[in-house]
Design a protein that fits this description.
Largest sheet: 3 strands, antiparallel
Shape: globular
Number of strands: 3
Structural class: alpha+beta
Strand order of the largest sheet: 1-2-3
Strand content: 15-25%
Number of helices: 3
Distance between the termini: 34 Å
């Protein structure tokens, strides 16, 4: 399972196939690259919403790795009440 955290918002990665360790490492390196000062997107990424950044990651992973992935926002709130 891969969870991408963008500015405190968490996204769960879903893939169209089983990911190998190498796939996961490659996807992680792609996501980290976006925050590298040498990246062409570096200046623009901070003006994007979290959802637009996740969408951009999806497109780059498809282009670079050839895997269809979706980053779905995790909207989870759990409340436990003891009776």
């Amino acid at each position: 399972m891969i969870i991408l955290t963008i500015n405190g918002e968490q996204f769960l990665l879903e893939s169209d196939r089983e990911l190998t360790v190498d796939d996961k490492n490659y996807i992680e390196s792609i996501c980290e690259y976006f925050y590298d000062e040498d990246n062409e997107w570096y200046d623009d990424i901070y003006d994007m919403s979290n959802y637009k950044i996740a969408d951009l990651f999806q497109k780059v992973v498809k282009k670079e790795v050839g895997i269809n992935v979706t980053f779905k926002c995790i909207d989870l709130e759990v409340e436990i009440n003891e009776d």
